[in-house]
Amino acid sequence: MATVTRTETAAGRRAPRPRADALRNRERIVAAAREMFVEFGPEVPLDEIARRAGVGNATLYRHFADRDELIHHVVVSVMSRSTDQAEAATAEEADAFEALRRFVHAAADERIGALCPMLSGAFDKEHPDLLAARERLEVAVGGLMERARRSGRLRDDVAVGDLLVGLSQLTRPLPGSACMNFDQFVHRHLHIFLDGLEAPARSVLPGSPATLEDLRRES
Predict the structure, then answer these.
(1) Between the CA of residue 209 and those of 18, 165, 170, 206, 212, what are the distances in Å?
(2) What single DSSP character describes residue 158?
(3) Which region, left, alpha or beta, applies to residue 207 given φ > 0 means left and ψ of -120 to 50 means alpha?
(4) pLDDT band for position 7 (cuts 50, 70, 90)
(5) 145: closest CA among 126, 167, 128, 130?
(6) How far apart are CA 199 and CA 156, in angstroms?
(7) Gap between the Cα atoms of 176 and 116, Å rounded
(8) Which residues pair with 198 in a beta bridge?
(9) Of the residues 74, 105, 203, 205, which has the maximum number of CB atoms within 10 A of its CB?
(10) CA-to-CA distance for 44 and 25, rounded, in angstroms?
């Protein structure tokens, strides 16, 4: 009978699936990091993130080797969850502009405004995971806006970049303000912003619509 070596046996085994509690801890760390990056910026101490997530420092470092890896996963998570919201709004809302409105408010709750301060420095903007998440988000949001435009509810002189810049700016706390105090105004101000996107337009906008290419040139 042929002898099976230890190497062959190991190669034939599948990698074990993460335990449910490990997955929950990972999700709690990412959620806590997302909140604290919004409140304090990407340099917030990792110890504080672990404390808010309700886990120990060792648990955080088991999942994320360093700050850069944690930031990467937060950015991808925010993009992915926001895309899920866009796709759900498209599928479930008959009114195209209301679908857009629903997405914008849901994306605010996902803390999409946390992305901008983190997309700088040594952050790898060309990582395959990030590129895939960005493309999926852009397609979903672009589809929402095109549907609203075809319905006659979205003004013609705005593009995806205008929406994403406005959403990002309105979901970031003002310098020196506490996040919890700021949150009470976010959805109110987003509603005002959305009213400005609705057709018929009440004024002529300066400049030209902000495209995704414009945003990439500025980043």
Answers:
(1) 45, 11, 18, 9, 10
(2) -
(3) left
(4) very low
(5) 167
(6) 8
(7) 17
(8) 154
(9) 74
(10) 19
pLDDT grade, residue 2 (50/70/90)?
very low
The secondary element (H helix, E strand) that includes residue 88 is helix 67-92
How far apart, in whole angstroms, are the C-alpha atoms of residue 15 and residue 219? 38
Q: Rounded to whole angstroms, what are the CA distances from 164 to 31, 36, 115, 129, 176?
A: 21, 21, 11, 20, 23
What is the CB neighbour count within 10 angstroms for residue 108? 21
Report how far residue 97's alpha carbon sits from residue 199's, in angstroms, rounded to the nearest whole number.
Answer: 10
- Which tens digit of pLDDT belongs to each residue from 124-164? 888 899 899 989 999 999 999 999 999 999 999 999 989 98
Q: What is the pTM of this model?
A: 0.79
Element (H, E) at 89: helix 67-92
Question: Does residue 183 carry a pLDDT above 80?
Answer: no
Q: List, for residues 64-79, the tens digit of each pLDDT value.
A: 999 989 999 999 999 9
